[in-house]
Amino acid sequence: xxxxxxxxxxxxxxxxxxxxxxxxxxxxxxxxxxxxxxxxxxxxxxxxxxxxxxxxxxxxxxxxxxxxxxxxxxxxxxxxxxxxxxxxxxxxxxxxxxxxxxxxxxxxxxxxxxxxxxxxxxxxxxxxxxxxxxxxxxxxxxxxxxxxxxxxxxxxxxxxxxxxxxxxxxxxxxxxxxxxxxxxxxxxxxxxxxxxxxxxxxxxxxxxxxxxxxxxxxxxxxxxxxxxxxxxxxxxxxxxxxxxxxxxxxxxxxxxx
Length: 257
Description:
This protein is an alpha+beta fold and 257 residues long.
């Protein structure tokens, strides 16, 4: 990774690079270890489905509102985008060390989600409402940008065009709008010393139905620790009854992203 802009090379001089392989985005992510501070660098091709500039904008808007990284550098050249951010101290919530006290982990995940959803959406410039998401899903289907090999197990073998028809047919009639993370999966929640220390990978954040986050949180908890912990998570979040149709819908929606 020597072929980075000179301005970025100067900023990262003296840091050791370690590639992070967790996650499914188009970007390459590196942990840059320094003598005093660590940073994270994302490098992503310009022709990727999503772009790092949008994540940069959202991180900057969230400064002082939520515990998120700080943008240290953003630029692009003829081939790639580059986004350098500060490290959020702690360990991501998918780490197996949390098996020792999963009930505490569920409390923290619920608290983190409530913190996000309580953020005021007044003047929030990032629209992730259903009409916007469905239109983007349509664009990706028409341009062959949906990875059918990465569908959830229950949809393996199906075609994106058929799933899009299902998306249109089952569109919810209402939205409970809050500020959402957009990808509230356990690797994106950082915990330190028994508290949620911050949120990362915010490229899909914005105003959306709270079920956007609930659906992906439930899927991620089930995948990492087991579905038996979902009721405890929901109780801590404050939901006694869940709209299962919305959970299924927003998990379906995620197949396009």
